[in-house]
Amino acid sequence: MKVDAANTALEVLREIISEQTDQPTSVRMYFAGAACSGPSFGLALDEKKPSDVSCSVEDIEFIMDAQEYEQFGDMLIQDLGGGFRVIPEKLKDMQSGCGSCSGCH
């Protein structure tokens, strides 16, 4: 598994991990649903399970369910200047929001 993350995202995640001392320190990347613009992913602090794959980026361990990883592949965390977007690396050039429906707006 490979995760490519913007430095600003890593800084924010480090801050969150340091503030949440009663939480696990691994960052789970998970499939959160689909919309007209493609799959949506979330991030959460979680403990690694036997069915997970993982990788470390600098000092942060990212984990993902092995079946989800098999389906979506390596992940990218983009800095959108006010938020982050978590997507499969193979979809990195896809624009957010297709504009063809009112469900996403």
From TrEMBL:
The lineage of its organism: Bacteria, Bacillati, Bacillota, Clostridia, Peptostreptococcales. Gene3D superfamilies: HesB-like domain. This is Fe-S cluster assembly protein HesB. It comes from the Bacteria.
